[in-house]
Structure formats: structure tokens, C-alpha cells
């Protein structure tokens, strides 16, 4: 009798069907972890590269200037400027955590090179995961860091892109070298004629010129065009300073007003100058333009002592007994009349609106004293933010 | 040798046992299949949203400025335009790109410059962007925006009943700081 039955074929068919299902499922399921793992590695490498940028910001610390010191990235600021030494030349991976830490994801390498300006450093940070030697994930961030300090290397205490008249008992003083180059500083540096009269003095290393009316008797520059180009904030920098002033300083301009809100008409009178970054904008808030002089701000400061950076999108009159430590940056004219103001640091006046013909662009009168002081200018008397930060618009991912 | 075969009773008992066994197995298999379909549909819904959202977040992370995003301080913008710093693949030089993301029906669209819009995600039920200042306060002023929160809610676009395993939805959210914004 036939006893073959159907158990074996049934079992075999079921086995084949089940095997096919399992193979299909395993294939599908196997792809998912690969995709997920790739995404994870990429995200980890990006996070590590970001850590590298943050570590560079920490390592750079506050800008120290071109002075010998213990900073590991000193060559970036020496003259001539060189590349950073290990590990900041990208040669040595910096661990994300001690090697004993089981949660370690990978490492990053950071390469620092001098930026195009004295206050800029270029950073290339590469995140590696799990390891630089056998990376499964790699991301590269390039970014430029900048510091407010170290931006300018003014040749003199008073720098005017036009004519200068120093009268009354005004004194403009400098001694020693410039901030970032090993050349002598001058007291007054101007693109045009400099006149000295009354009991005023332009003093270099203690030697004062007290009487001078003929053109070019004091410092007058043949390289003025390039020098004043170097002493000019770019529009991007002005936008950044405006943002800093809005958030951590004092901003006067349309939209956001200073201590006493009202309709902003471009005219500001400070009886007490605030410390920190002070930005006084044009009436419209647009970039200052020589073709639109009525848009420029008109600022007068009197009163108390202060420290910081004053940036005026127009002209500035210094009066009263203000004792100011820092940088005064004026896109048009500077005048100093009554009072016994003292400015330690540097003054930069760009004489944007030159339509006033032969009139004096900057007039230091009364008893004002301007002393060349690099540290005070760089650090705004200690009242402007120190250290490096990301230059807006420079953070990007590159392939490699 | 006994070659009588099975009795009817034996066969009925065997059939009943087999029937019970098969019913259990089919139920088990059906549950497994439903779970798999549920998971697969969910993964698909999430994956599509994740890919689109990742692209938006990558670009926002390199963002320079939000140029337009109405109501982004309150109910959330459904249409956001911003600039970001890209790298030219050939020259490796930085390029500033203006891009707009907006919701058209259930399609999330990306428009670069004056080019035609690309659909980067479909089945989008909700797309919102909220703006924050450097101190973390909500703002509707794009010029003050330093970070943004993005919410994307997606649903699988098959027309099925709400109890179907194919009907899956997913909400993804992230908060990103614009690395190239003013400080």
C-alpha cells in the first residue's frame, strides 16, 4: 500500500516560502542600519568638526597683540605672521575626550593660519569618526575668526583723511612704535595739510611742534590713500559692530534708539558717554554716503569718563571734560572745542563729506589731549568684547 | 500489518487540531505582517521627512540671514526665505545662495534664486518655522533672528482608512543656530 503521504512536500514548500521571506526581510533590514550608520557617522563628524572650531576659539583667547608670550598660537600674531605650531597646524588629532573614555566618538584636527587682516585667523577644522587613520565619517569646516582687538594699526594718535588744524591748548601726542608694525608712530597723520597754532602742540617722543602754518609742516602722508583704506571698517564689519552695539552696547539709529527714545533725526548729544561699543548710525540706517550728507549723524559728547569704541556714521564734536579711553571712529569730521577732554587710544576721521571745500576737516581746539595708546585702542579701555568670534558669512562646509 | 487507514473520528480530530493550529499560526503571521507594514510605512514617512528636513537644516546651519518669514515670532512662518554660504564644488570658493522653502498644498518646495521650485517632500501636513534672537526670545523681525525652530509633520499619502497600517504620520522638529548670522 502506498504510504508516501504529503508531509514532506508540504514541509519543503513551507520551508522554501519561509526562507524566501526571511531572505527578503534580512536584505531590507540590513540596508537600514547601513543608511542609519552613515547618517550617524556624518553627524558625529560634523559635531566633532564644530568642537574643533570651538576649541580654536578657546585656545586663541583674548587677542594679545604681537608680543612674545606663552600662547600656543603666537606665530599667528608675530611680525611677520606665520602659521601656528602643533597641534594647531592640523598635524595632530585632538581627542574629543580622554582615550580611557568609552564614549569617545572620534577626534578632530584644527589648522590655524593667519587671516587677511591682523585681527583675523582662518580655521580649518576636520572631524574624524571613529578614528583619523580609518575614518568612516569625515567633515571639514572652514571659518574665519576675528577679534575686535587688533583690527587697526593706525600710524598716529590723530588720523585724518583730510586737513587738520590744531589750536588753543590742544595736544596730540605719540611715542614709541605703531601697534602692529615696527615703525615709529606719529602724533598726527593726515592726508591733507596740518596746521598748528596758538599754544597747541603736536608732540612726538616729547618733541613738540608748537607753531606751524605752512602746508605739510607736520606728518603728511604720501601713502595716505592705502593707509586710510586700511583704517576703514568694511560694510560687513560695520553691520557686525552695529549688531554688537544693539545687543551689548549702545546703538542710536532708526528702529532702535538710545537711552531716550524718540524720533531719530541723526543728532545725538551725550552728556554722559556710555562705555562699551557705541554705534551712532546714519539717519536712514543705510551705509553713509558722500552724496547724501544730510543723512549723516551729528554727535556731541560732553561729560563723564568712559571707555570703549565710539563709531559715528557722521561727524563728532568732543567737548566738556570727557576722559575717554579707546577708539573714536568717525566717517566724517571731528571737532574738539571747549573743555579739557583727554582721549587715550586713537582717533580715526575719514572726512567722507569733503564738499566743504578748503574748510578744516578736523579741528582740535580748547584743551583737548589725544594720546597714542595701542592697548587702550585695541581693548577699548577694557570695555569692548575681547577674544575671537566667528566672522559672519565665513562659516562653511568644504569637501575633501 | 494493519492497513485499515484512519477512521472518520481520527480524521476529524486531526482536522480540528490542525485547524486550531493553523488559526493560531495565521493570526500570528497576520499580526507580524501588520507590524512589519506598520513599521515600514512609518519608516518611509519618517525617512522622506528626515531627508527633506536634513537638507533644510544643513542650509539653515550655514545661514547668514533670514530675509523673509512672516509671523515667525508668533504662530510660525509657513514660508521662509534666507541666505546661506555654500561652497562651489568645482572651485571650493564660497558662494552666497538665496533660497526659499514654502508649503504648496502638501508639498514642501525649495526654490533657489530665480530657478523653478523643487518639491523636496510630499505628504506634508504642517510646516512651521519660528525665529529667535541671540538671547532666545521669540522674534518676528528677520534681521534679529539668530536661531530657528523648524517643525515638519508628514503623513503617508496613500488613500486608506485611518486604521490601515499604511496610514502613518510623523512629526520632526529641530532647532538650529545660523552659524553665519551677525553676532
Number of helices of chain A: 4
Give, in order, the helices and strands of chain B: HEEEEEEEE
* N-to-C CA distance of chain A: 77 Å
Q: Approximately how much beta-strand content do the residues of chain B carry?
A: 25-35%
CA gyration radius of chain A, whole angstroms: 31 Å
**Major sheet characteristics of chain A:** 11 strands, mixed
- Broad structural category of chain A: alpha/beta
Helix content of chain B: 25-40%
Secondary-structure element series of chain A: HEEEEEEEEEEEHHEEEEEEEEEEEHEE
The total count of strands of chain A amounts to 24
Number of extended strands of chain B: 8
Mean pLDDT of chain B: 88
Number of helices of chain B: 1
What's the shape of chain A? elongated
What characteristics describe this protein?
heterodimer, A: 400 residues, alpha/beta, eleven-stranded mixed beta sheet, seven-stranded parallel beta sheet, 4 helices, 24 strands, 30% strand, elongated, B: 183 residues, alpha+beta, five-stranded antiparallel beta sheet, three-stranded antiparallel beta sheet, 1 helix, 34% strand
Amino acid at each position: 500500500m502506498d504510504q508516501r503521504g504529503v508531509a514532506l512536500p508540504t514541509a519543503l514548500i513551507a520551508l522554501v516560502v519561509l526562507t524566501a521571506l526571511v531572505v527578503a526581510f534580512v536584505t531590507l533590514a540590513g540596508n537600514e542600519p547601513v543608511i542609519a550608520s552613515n547618517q550617524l557617522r556624518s553627524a558625529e563628524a560634523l559635531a566633532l568638526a564644530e568642537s574643533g572650531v570651538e576649541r580654536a576659539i578657546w585656545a586663541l583667547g583674548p587677542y594679545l597683540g604681537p608680543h612674545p608670550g606663552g600662547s600656543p598660537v603666537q606665530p599667528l600674531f608675530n611680525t611677520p605672521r606665520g602659521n601656528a605650531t602643533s597641534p594647531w597646524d592640523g598635524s595632530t588629532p585632538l581627542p574629543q575626550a580622554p582615550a580611557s573614555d568609552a564614549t569617545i566618538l572620534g577626534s578632530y584636527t584644527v589648522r590655524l593660519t593667519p587671516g587677511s587682516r591682523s585681527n583675523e585667523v582662518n580655521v580649518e577644522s576636520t572631524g574624524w569618526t571613529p578614528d583619523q587613520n580609518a575614518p568612516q565619517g569625515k567633515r571639514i569646516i572652514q571659518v574665519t575668526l576675528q577679534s575686535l582687538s587688533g583690527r587697526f594699526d593706525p600710524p598716529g594718535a590723530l588720523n585724518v583723511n583730510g586737513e587738520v588744524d590744531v589750536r588753543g591748548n590742544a595736544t596730540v601726542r605719540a611715542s614709541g612704535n605703531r601697534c602692529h608694525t615696527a615703525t615709529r608712530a606719529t602724533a598726527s597723520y593726515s592726508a591733507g595739510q596740518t596746521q598748528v597754532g596758538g599754544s597747541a602742540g603736536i608732540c612726538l617722543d616729547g618733541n613738540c611742534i608748537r607753531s606751524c602754518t605752512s602746508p605739510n609742516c607736520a606728518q603728511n602722508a604720501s601713502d595716505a590713500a592705502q593707509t586710510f583704506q586700511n583704517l576703514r571698517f568694511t560694510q560687513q564689519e560695520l553691520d557686525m559692530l552695529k549688531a554688537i552695539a544693539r545687543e551689548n552696547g549702545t546703538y542710536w539709529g532708526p528702529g532702535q534708539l538710545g537711552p531716550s527714545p524718540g524720533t531719530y533725526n541723526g543728532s545725538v548729544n551725550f552728556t554722559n558717554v556710555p562705555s562699551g561699543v557705541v554705534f551712532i548710525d546714519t539717519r536712514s540706517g543705510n551705509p553713509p554716503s558722500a552724496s547724501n550728507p544730510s543723512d549723516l549723524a551729528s554727535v556731541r559728547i560732553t561729560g563723564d569718563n568712559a571707555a570703549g569704541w565710539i563709531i559715528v556714521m557722521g561727524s563728532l564734536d568732543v567737548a566738556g571734560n570727557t576722559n575717554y579711553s579707546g577708539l573714536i571712529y568717525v566717517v566724517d569730521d571731528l571737532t574738539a572745542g571747549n573743555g579739557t577732554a583727554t582721549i587715550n587710544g586713537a582717533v580715526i576721521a575719514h572726512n567722507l563729506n569733503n564738499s566743504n571745500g578748503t574748510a578744516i576737516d578736523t579741528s582740535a581746539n580748547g584743551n583737548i589731549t589725544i594720546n597714542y595708546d595701542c592697548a587702550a585702542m585695541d581693548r577699548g579701555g577694557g570695555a569692548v568684547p575681547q577674544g575671537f568670534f566667528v566672522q559672519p558669512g565665513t562659516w562653511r562646509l568644504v569637501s575633501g | 500489518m494493519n492497513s485499515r487507514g484512519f477512521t472518520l473520528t481520527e480524521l476529524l480530530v486531526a482536522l480540528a487540531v490542525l485547524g486550531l493550529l493553523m488559526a493560531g499560526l495565521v493570526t500570528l503571521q497576520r499580526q507580524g505582517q501588520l507590524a512589519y507594514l506598520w513599521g515600514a510605512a512609518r519608516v518611509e514617512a519618517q525617512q522622506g521627512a528626515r531627508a527633506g528636513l536634513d537638507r533644510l537644516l544643513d542650509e539653515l546651519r550655514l545661514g547668514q540671514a533670514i530675509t523673509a518669514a512672516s509671523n515667525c515670532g508668533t504662530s510660525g512662518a509657513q514660508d521662509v526665505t534666507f541666505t546661506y554660504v555654500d561652497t562651489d564644488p568645482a572651485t571650493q570658493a564660497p558662494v552666497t545662495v538665496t533660497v526659499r522653502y514654502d508649503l504648496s498644498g502638501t508639498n514642501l518646495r525649495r526654490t533657489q534664486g530665480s530657478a523653478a521650485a523643487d518639491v523636496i517632500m510630499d505628504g506634508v501636513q504642517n510646516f512651521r518655522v519660528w525665529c529667535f534672537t541671540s538671547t532666545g526670545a521669540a522674534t518676528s523681525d528677520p534681521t534679529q533672528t539668530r536661531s530657528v525652530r523648524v517643525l515638519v509633520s508628514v503623513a503617508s499619502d496613500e488613500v486608506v482608512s485611518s486604521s490601515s497600517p499604511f496610514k502613518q504620520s510623523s512629526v520632526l522638529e529641530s532647532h538650529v543656530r545660523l552659524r553665519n548670522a551677525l553676532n
